[in-house]
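User: We ran a pulldown and think these components assemble together. Before we commit to crystallization trials, I'd like a predicted model of the whole complex to look at. Sequences follow.
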Amino acid sequence: MSVFVDSKLALFNYLNAANSTTQFTAANLTWSDPKPIAGTWMEGTTTKNTYAKVTPKQGAGFEGKATVKYNRLTLADFAKFRPTRPLPVYQPATTVDMLSNILYYFGLVLGPQDILSEPVVLDAQGAGTVTIKAKDTSPLWLGQLSFDVVQGGANIDTLTTVKALNGLNYPVADPATQTSALLYTYPLNLTGYRDQMLAMAEGVLSSANADILVTALKALDQGPGAALWNNSDSSNTWSLNGAKVIFCGLNTMVFPTNQSYKYVMCLELREGVTTPTGRFYLHFNDPDNPNSAD
Amino acid sequence: MDLDYRKTSAELVFDLINRDNPQLPVKLTPDNCRLGVPAAITGQGIRNTQISVMPKGNSGYMATTVLTYRRLSSDVLFQQGVPVIDDYATPADLTGVNIKVESAMRWINQKYGTMFIPADSDRAAVPNTVQTGYIWNFPASNLAWIGSFRWNRKATKKPVSEQVPASTPLLLTLVSGVAPGDQKPMADFMTYGTDFSKFTALLQSLTTLQVLPATAQAKDLVSYMGLVAGRKFNAYAPASMEGGLQDARCIKYALPNVNVPEANSTDYNNVVVITPPAAGGWFVGKFLLHYKV
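Assistant: Here's a predicted model for the assembly, 587 residues in total across the polymer chains.
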């Protein structure tokens, strides 16, 4: 009889093995709650400590009933086999909450039918000593077992409550329909417009500055927006009209920018402009001077 | 909430799990969890992939969970169209050579902000004979990306930075290939500018590369050199000893001469050059003994 299966299943396996058969299952027999033999008339007739009654279920092909005598196992005996290290548990409210940890770390199948559900009190670090007690009606277990526990063993399956993840969606909500401004302008090099861009103040772009950026983007853009950039206050796509300069200056790790550029301009399009989506980061360097070592 | 896309495919998936499950007591990371091989699924809305997440032994987690998410086509990353990388290979470099797609990786990452790693490519070798239409295939086991994308190469001149790596400092020399800081005395400076015309008979005889003759005149010459240099020279000691010049090699040149341009002079029409023996000696460089005939 293995301790590594459900206690009822273990008993049926035992019953079948003892009778050289495979026909008894939970589907065709009802296994009653067990009772101690001590104090009954059977006490003097057997060395076993437990008896239970098995009764055929309807349609089982048997009739009548039979009394099965066997030895329930003592939980404390398991302490002889289990590792001495503490059991990792994660904030169990009751002893029954630890059963999956006992199975995972000790390989011992205990069910709510086996163990009394009692409150677990642990210290601030989630550690302590816990005693699990067998129910009187446990088919397989008697007695109790004490062991140390430490914080750990959080069940990733129950704690990960959102299993259908809402992504990947980098870096826009729906990459299938939206053009990410960040990705769209990431490879562009606006070094040729350094002086004009550095002169642009933070805040809403003047129309003249928007024109400069429209010209720059049209010149550099290799994608579908190349012909579409505009400075129209009535356009809701590819329009820099009313766009706001969030930042313009030395590149910084704060932004998701290309660190091989010295300067970056962060732009936010006018509210209502839907394409491209999100913030722009326009990268540029100092133009190279062959006569300067910098 | 948008997440920074400039991460490896595994990091992208971990970020996604953590973003959607902020209640997890400890964030899931490659250090505390393993991701299984992603499996394609259908009929789950936007989600096309199923993956198992298995905590490592020291993670504080137990059990396994199975999650679904969307792997992306890499089209979303290259919204400017087909990515183009600059490649300085000249046409002569292209013939008969196969390159691996991943060789383009660092350029693509640098230019487009992606964080591809070699495992993100099937690493198939492609003929290095064309400029366009390279295909980057993502392996079926890739965690974040599916399908493939095309990339092109634009031949450019070789960047000078590739030829002058900043990590290789130049080794400046003064004369005779001797670097500053060499501990041996430099002969070039010791006798330069002195007129050795009074030894003309001896110096004129040194027409082939040879050691100094063991003559009284040679001894006088060496003594005079020592006087000029302010050192004690010895015509009878080998150059392995301090001041020794017995086995130093001498040769005469008529000036001007392309072999010793540094010795060319408006005042002298001949020079004898004395260099250390092949095995080296106490000095480096060469003595220049100018004289007039």
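Chain A is about 20% helix and 20% strand. That may be worth checking against your pulldown data before setting up trials.

User: Thanks, that helps.
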